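input
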Amino acid sequence: MSDSSIVKTKYWHLLDDGRVQCDLCPRECKLHEGQQGLCFVRANQNNELVLTTYGRSSGFCIDPIEKKPLNHFLPGTPVFSFGTAGCNLACRFCQNWDISKSREMDTLADAASPEMIAEAAARHGCRSVAYTYNDPVVFHEYAIDVAQACRQKGIKSVAVTAAYVNPEPRTEFYQWMDAANVDLKAFSEDFYHKITGGHLEAVLESLKYIKHETDCWLETTTLIIPGYNDSVKELTAMCEWIVENLGVDMPMHFTAFHPDFKMMNVAATPAPTLTMARDIAIKAGVRYAYVGNVHDRDADSTWCHQCGELLIERDWYVLGQWNLDAEGCCQSCGTKVAGVFEATAGDWGAKRLPVRMAG
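output
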């Protein structure tokens, strides 16, 4: 690892016993000299907290924005995606565990400065850059620097995150984000504690903060795991909380689990369970509810909540009919659709384009 990969951080303090406490996330790891936090990438070095993965990525790829998933933010456009290594949660079902749980810096094959990323995104015609694959909370400083470089070029920033972060760094982070998809993993403290090693309330506070205190467009995703977070009672409570605290215009995505990492013995999510979750959301008042990781054109598409007309047709990541006007309103009844839309749909489709960075 090069010295340039190690940068000093700002959210920490020295304890009376000589340890350093990380103040970035609610885990608040207390570290002796040379120790790393649970995230693996923030460490006590010479009685200071450093980030060890600055400027290093597990890879760069251009994806459809719908893959994040974001359905109401620049539909059909390409997003320049990257991540680093490490995570501040310990989800037993992690589907990016080879990246998020990696202790090996060899995972970080690509090096790139914030300016290089912004330039590459612009060169490839991307409207946004996504901080994804692992949680950008743990590469806070790098993500913000990239977002600042992107903003100078008119490129928007997208956080794909579990939003497990303390209030002060959260405020700094989201002033640079234009959109976020927050992984609301369940709606019970027991699930968060036992399955992710975190706490639900911190995530709910982040959701309320993003929605009401920032200009960042927000959507949520819940991976539905059979027998763990798929009960009618829990899903109803989640959707009712969303409506009450975040509003009816907040898009929700319910995605299918497949056996992975430390939950190989759990069956994949049946498609009817996702349909049930979507129906519960709609019954609770959510205007835009979607399913993912399964093929369901109707449940992937956006419909007008006022007149019921098809607004944005989606077949996996490929857009079909586009019935929004230049102002983002339903062409049939004129109802405004919540989101960030351009005058016409993007045409990136389902393409996935890996990118190698030079230098």
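quick obs: The mean pLDDT is 93.
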